[in-house]
Amino acid sequence: MSLSPYVPIIGLFALAAFFALFSVAAARFAGPRRYNRAKLEAYECGIEPSPQPVGGGRFPIKFYLTAMLFIVFDIEIIFLYPWAVSFDMLGLFGFVEMVLFIVAVFVAYAYVWRRGGLDWD
Amino acid sequence: MDLKLPDIDYAALAPILVLFGASLVGVLVEAFIPRKRRHLTQLVLGLLALTGALVAVVLNAQDRVVTAGGAVAVDGPTLFLQGAIVVLAGMALMLIGERSVQRGGAFVAHAAVTVGSPEDQRQAADEGGATEVYPLTLFAVSGMLLFVAANDLLTMFIALEAFSLPLYLLCALARRRRLLSQESALKYFLLGSYASAFFLFGMALVYGFTVGAGGTGSGGGVDFGTIRTAVTDSAASEVLLFAGLALLSIGLLFKIAAAPFHVWTPDVYQGAPTPITGFMAACTKVAAFGGLLRVLHVAFSGASWDFTPVLGAIAVLTMLVGAILAVTQTDIKRLLAYSSVANAGYLLVGALVLSKDGLSSTMFYLVAYGFTVLAAFGVVTLVRDADGEATHLSRWAGLGRRSPLYAGLFTFLLLAFAGIPLTSGFTSKFAVFGAALDAGQSWLVIAGVLTSMILAFPYLRVVVMMWLSEPGESTPTVSLPGGLTAAALMIGVVATLVLGVAPAPLLDLANGAAEFVR
């Protein structure tokens, strides 16, 4: 295997490294240095930084529950896509297996529903 | 294009499927049965499922098949270890289900409540424990059954996660000392996921090795057959193989608590609810060693000259660390944790003997140790005062006067740990060291015997404290066990005695089972 296809990539790496180093160094020498309060604050994409929550940052557990639920159903969907694409090849076996999988996930769904995980308040 | 569907032998997978199905039913019970009746329903469901799984294992006893597209191997060691895990999990489930020793059992009702808040104190005082522990335990057990049967590294990784994730949760559910419990769960989770990452990376490197070994054009694989052929036949560079095997071993050695990957053990064993500690000490150890045995015997046996010195050194280090640090412990659960580390070292000595003898003696050791350690933690759940379990060793002084029966039982179990004749601890150590001597690994045996002598000291110190000190003001009482704990204790103690006096039947069974399908 020859290395030739990688030469442009190595060139690009070198260029990127040079650009990064050059920019940092150039800013140091060429840029003016004027400090003010805004510059010492945490950078949050240009908006006003949100204040630290009082008491160590506790927040309602329902956000956490929502995130958990999202992961459960997200993974189910991710698993469904490749199956749907190759449904005709997998046939009845694939269908039955997928139904079993969905049943297992629905058990989790039933648990969440009965335990009030779907109620916001 | 036609896909070739894998052959699936559902009967061979039955033990795993029964437990997985039962855990799903368990979740539904949590959802639909009124709170008052959940505890009993779950307990009966769990014990029934474990019985069903045991029956399925026994019915499969003659199976020697590779099924599910080569992902699962049901053979002698699989069935032996699956049977062991199911029986030990049954004992653990009895300890978990105990509710008469303390009000509401050993588990917290709502784990998410802020520790120390009025709500927390209210639920600690009068709410029954969370019944989610039963489906979680069953999920863990079904993962363990798959882990010892896994015949490729990917399935093994899935099974590893399937039994680890419920364990992380279970560790956090102690009713008393909630902060310690949560801390232990977090430590176990973080270190455990870290170890899993090592396992995955090792798998990737081993895959790379098999691709290289097959020459250009042939695909590699992570099933043990492919790895085995690649290891034996390959003339390719072995750097990938050794790096991969080393990283895989780190993942597995973490689970079996071998030094230097043992640091989580004392903290987690101390913080977890005691029935869960017993479950981990018995069942996780059996499952993790089952996986390690298959990896070493089936996949990498061709490289045994290369890995034996390294893993042997780890075994010696494990025995030394476990024995020496056990001497300095002042908490009974931490003491048993370090003893479990040392025992992982003895088991590694057996696991490194890649013969039929080595395999059967290691499997025997696993079963014998599992019974003893579960019974020991069963006794720990009974020694209590107003604040829960009194685990500090000084509190155990004079227990022999206050409760001769339980102090006597605990003495017997400690003597079994120390390997005194007429206990299972002696026969199992004898079998493992014998196999190692036959294989010419006398350096491991010497280290094993020396550390056993060191380790006898902390055990005997507890015995002396229990019997030769006067009970003081602070000596806790021993609660009267409910039927479940009593049954689990009895099974453990009787098994420890029987396996010490008449080990032949189980040794024969292990011998008959000690052959992997390849």
TrEMBL record, chain A:
Reactions this protein catalyses: a quinone + NADH + 5 H(+)(in) = a quinol + NAD(+) + 4 H(+)(out)
What is the name attached to this protein's record?
Answer: NADH-quinone oxidoreductase subunit A
What NCBIfam families does the record tag this protein with? PRK07928.1
Localization per Swiss-Prot or TrEMBL: Cell membrane; Membrane
Identify the species of origin. Plantactinospora mayteni
Would I find Transmembrane among this entry's keywords? yes
Per the record, the domain of life is Bacteria
Which Gene3D superfamilies does the entry link to? NADH:ubiquinone/plastoquinone oxidoreductase, chain 3
TM stretches of this protein? 6-30, 63-84, 90-112
Q: What is its EC number?
A: 7.1.1.-
Q: What class of enzyme is it?
A: translocase
Keywords in alphabetical order, please. Cell membrane, Membrane, NAD, Quinone, Translocase, Transmembrane, Transmembrane helix, Transport
| Organism classification | Bacteria, Bacillati, Actinomycetota, Actinomycetes, Micromonosporales
From TrEMBL, chain B:
- What's the protein's topology in the membrane? Multi-pass membrane protein
Q: Which residues form the signal peptide?
A: none
What is this enzyme's EC? 7.1.1.-
Q: Which UniProt keywords apply?
A: Cell membrane, Membrane, NAD, Quinone, Translocase, Transmembrane, Transmembrane helix, Transport
What's the family?
Belongs to the complex I subunit 2 family.
Q: Which reaction does this chain catalyze?
A: a quinone + NADH + 5 H(+)(in) = a quinol + NAD(+) + 4 H(+)(out)
Which residue range or ranges hold the NADH:quinone oxidoreductase/Mrp antiporter transmembrane domain? 150-454
Highest taxon in the source lineage: Bacteria
Q: Where are the transmembrane segments?
A: 12-33, 40-59, 79-97, 133-150, 156-174, 186-209, 239-264, 276-295, 307-328, 335-354, 366-383, 404-423, 443-468, 480-502
Subunit organization: NDH-1 is composed of 14 different subunits. Subunits NuoA, H, J, K, L, M, N constitute the membrane sector of the complex.
Localization, UniProt: Cell membrane; Endomembrane system; Membrane
The family database entries (Pfam families) matched by this protein are listed as: Proton_antipo_M
Task: Give the enzyme's main class according to its UniProt record, as a single word.
Answer: translocase
* HAMAP family (alphabetical): NDH1_NuoN_1
Record's function text: NDH-1 shuttles electrons from NADH, via FMN and iron-sulfur (Fe-S) centers, to quinones in the respiratory chain. The immediate electron acceptor for the enzyme in this species is believed to be a menaquinone. Couples the redox reaction to proton translocation (for every two electrons transferred, four hydrogen ions are translocated across the cytoplasmic membrane), and thus conserves the redox energy in a proton gradient.
Q: Does the keyword Plastid apply?
A: no
Q: What protein name is recorded for this chain?
A: NADH-quinone oxidoreductase subunit N
The gene it comes from is nuoN_2
